[in-house]
Amino acid sequence: MPTRVCFELRVRPEMIDAYVARHTPVRADMLAEIAAAGRRNYSLFLGEGGRLVGYYETDDDAAAQAYLAASPIAAAWEAEMAPFFLDLDGRPDQAATALTEVFHLADQLAGVADVASPDPMASAPTESTRP
Question: The CATH number of the domain where 18 resides is what?
Fold first, then answer.
């Protein structure tokens, strides 16, 4: 089961256009490093005032973090990106504020299905239980 990771950063309002331009598109070598680290379904969402929310899935977030922390390609990218962010100590990929997941539709639907939908055949009368 993959781990879902969500994080938040603040882009300097005066640098939003330049930040978007740097991601349109991201350099191919950095895209390859993200994939090689094991991150997938990776998205960034930009909100009002420079609020940036990121999301990705991975099978092992600690291993993905370690891979990118050791990658010269990622280190160069993160050094180039660091000036875009407010209130950041360290590399953006290592210092972003993690968000806690409080709801996931598929997980809750699976839980409801397990409780609310017992096997219909389990309660069906059998020849030995019929009156």
Answer: 3.30.70.100
In a domain, 110, yes or no: yes
Q: Where are the alpha helices (DSSP H) in the chain?
A: 16-22, 28-37, 61-70, 72-81, 92-95, 105-116
Q: How many domains does the chain fold into?
A: 1
pLDDT in tens, 92-114: 998 999 999 999 999 999 988 77
- Can you give the residue range of the structural domain that contains 28? 3-116
Coil/strand/helix, residue 53: strand
> Does any domain span residue 98?
yes
Which two structure tokens, joined as six digits, stand for 89? 């100590």
Strand partners, 57: 4, 40
Cβ partners under 8 Å of residue 73, min gap 6: 29, 30, 32, 33
33-83: per-residue pLDDT in tens?
999 999 999 999 999 999 999 999 999 999 999 999 999 999 999 999 999
The model's pTM: 0.82
How does DSSP classify residue 121? T
